[in-house]
Amino acid sequence: MFKKGICLVVLVAMAFSLIACSGNGSENSGEASEGAVQWPKNVEIVVPAGAGGDTDFNARLLADKLSQKLESNFVVSNVSGEGGATGTRQVKNAENDGSSVLFYHSAFVVNELSGTTDYGFDAYEFACIAAMNPGNVVTVNSSLGVNSLEELFEYSKENPGELKMAAQTGATSYAVSMLLKNAGLDVNIVDAGSAAERMAALLGGHVDIILAAYGSIHDYVEAGDLVPLALDSGVDLEEAGLKSIVSEGYDIKLPFYYFFAFPEGTDQALVDELSAAVKDIVENDADYAKRIGDTYLQTPTYYDADGGLEKFGEVYDILEDVEF
């Protein structure tokens, strides 16, 4: 009987030892293991932009990939309005049980600095930067007869007060429009709504200039309807033969990062696991890399919470002197 008791104690001790070793291995890996935390059945990815654009594309692709990796169904909801503030506010005020997460971009900073919102990243549990757009393109209708950024500046000087540049108040398009105007581009900045609405306004001849993702203008450029002039990211896009505004001689750039952030107080284990899953997708999923490259000429980009907030600190520095 005594021997049986000893054997039982030993077996129990061995079981606990195995559990402890398993736990230590997980901690030493430095990454959240998939399935290690309890996800809600459904997770709503709130996108403060309309359907069909670059933000929506990135969110839906990542939603599909995350649904395959994590034990939850990730579904995108487009919640536009107030230059994105309606959607960011919805997530800020949502339940912090992991059922809601924000997917947005650098316009979040513009919202705060322009006074559209009265909160910043500290109102959330920032997860990671999940992607980076190569930049928006200063684009004109081919009927304008302008074929370079320098020609556009010259045209605006020769025709003061004539050009209309479409933007969305509180968004990155407005911030870059203001930077161009401050650099001497004589334009009237008009609020023309979402990216799709601004595109329609340009094609319809209602405005003269827009900022747009290259993927959304590519077909129109090929058809000869639109002319791309320069990128606002600060980096040349060699694949498309496009130079940046910086390369054209103007110190204007606005990096365009996409990020995930949960409501404040969300379990850090959930935040970390999503970040780890995104990291794995970005760094190892060949299908993901091909699709973002083919559609928007994006290169897979990931920064964890600390690195991501550091990158957005640079965006704050760029925009702090803009008069919104």
- The portion of residues forming beta strands comes to 15-25%
Helix content: 40-55%
Distance between the termini: 82 Å
Order of SSEs: HEHEHEHEEHEHEHEHEEHHH
Described by strand count, sense and barrel closure, the largest sheet is: 5 strands, mixed
Question: What does this molecule look like?
Answer:
It is a single chain. Helix 2 links the parallel strand 1 and strand 2. The longest helix is centred in the N-terminal third of the chain and has 28 residues, at about 1-30. Helix content is about 45%, strand content about 20%. Residues about 1-35 have low confidence and may be disordered. The chain contains 11 helices and 10 strands. Helix 2 packs across helix 9. The chain folds into 2 domains: about 40-135 and about 255-320, 3-Layer(aba) Sandwich (D-Maltodextrin-Binding Protein, domain 2); about 135-240, D-Maltodextrin-Binding Protein, domain 2 (3-Layer(aba) Sandwich). Strands 2-1-3-10-4 form a 5-stranded mixed β-sheet, sandwiched between helices. A 3-stranded antiparallel β-sheet has the order 8-5-9, with helices on both faces. By secondary structure, the protein is α/β, with parallel strands linked by helices.
Summarize the structure.
The protein has 324 residues and is of the alpha/beta class. It contains 11 helices and 10 strands.
